[in-house]
Write a structure and sequence with these properties.
mainly alpha, 10 helices
Length: 276
Amino acid sequence: MKYTLPLLLVFLFCSTPVFATKADVRDAATTIGFSMGDAINIAGRQRMLSQRITQSYILQGIQPSVEKHRQVFERSMTEFERNLAKLASFKPAAPIISTLQLVQEEWRAFADIARQPVSKSTAAELFQRSNTLLPAAHTYVMRLQALANHSSAELVNVSGRQRMLSQRIAKNYVAQHWGVAGSEGTRLLYEDLAEFEQMLTFLLESPLNTPDITRNLRKTQGHLSYASRGFDGEMQMSEARQIHVITGTTDIMLRNMNVITGQYAQLLNAVEIAAR
């Protein structure tokens, strides 16, 4: 399969300057319950949850009898709210609180739509709104990464973004299937596949990888290859079965990348501890 790498890869590695020293961040992190690596991990999950919520909302419309979709939706909504509260209490990120406030504003508008009864028109509206909540959440992660000021922070960010991409791939697929993605559904799907593949290569090339991280990345490569067969029409199965296989495989990719992101966060935490 040939993909075109999207221009937003440039945006991924851009960051906004913040005015706090490494010592300020390190000293403040010791006074709270989680570290900068944890904060980047949690903030990165918000990107993923914006896409997972939208995916599960659409799936409730496609397969209303499947209880799992409603459960995933409710758990994800609850987690997004909980994570916002955690991040708001993270004192080392006080210099960038205005960026988090923008996420909170986007979330309120998004959640108002998501709480409406499932319909095609509302799903199309939520699909569009998920594409404004995501950049706001991403900007906050990038500013946290700049605040951390260490190469391992970039790995936490990029691997966390892979979690999001696994769910945006699934979101774009089911939105296209239900006819709520608009005219760009196919292009967005293949751009996400291209970015996921490209960033896996980037992570695999990191000299900071442990053997466990490398093994987990290789597993994710295999799952991406399997899911791609479904997008290419190589799987001979019913539509319902194909939705199950693709969303199930992207969920495995999510779980793998969640483990990897946690492993990279531990590397950053170790750097913080060593610097004290």
